[in-house]
Write a structure and sequence with these properties.
mainly alpha; 4 helices
Length: about 70
């Protein structure tokens, strides 16, 4: 996956998550500006952080389904 594709996938997953998840993401990747638009946060992330951020987004997304299925 290219950095552009990773950013797009992070944005896609974040769009399905709630504000609480967005705030956690902002605390990790934009701690000096928690009011910044989540898409701008993703756009300004260094490429070296994209793999980890994408994995975190996937984990958050999948955790929601585990909770809904009663497996968490």
């Amino acid at each position: 996956m290219t950095p552009k594709q990773k950013r797009a996938e992070i944005k896609r997953i974040l769009s399905k998550l709630d504000e609480h998840n967005h705030l956690i993401f902002k605390r990790m990747y934009s701690h000096t500006d928690l009011e910044r638009d989540i898409n701008l946060v993703v756009d300004s992330m260094p490429a070296r952080q994209l793999d980890w951020a994408l994995q975190q987004c996937k984990n958050s997304y999948h955790q929601i389904f585990k909770i809904l299925a009663g497996r968490a």
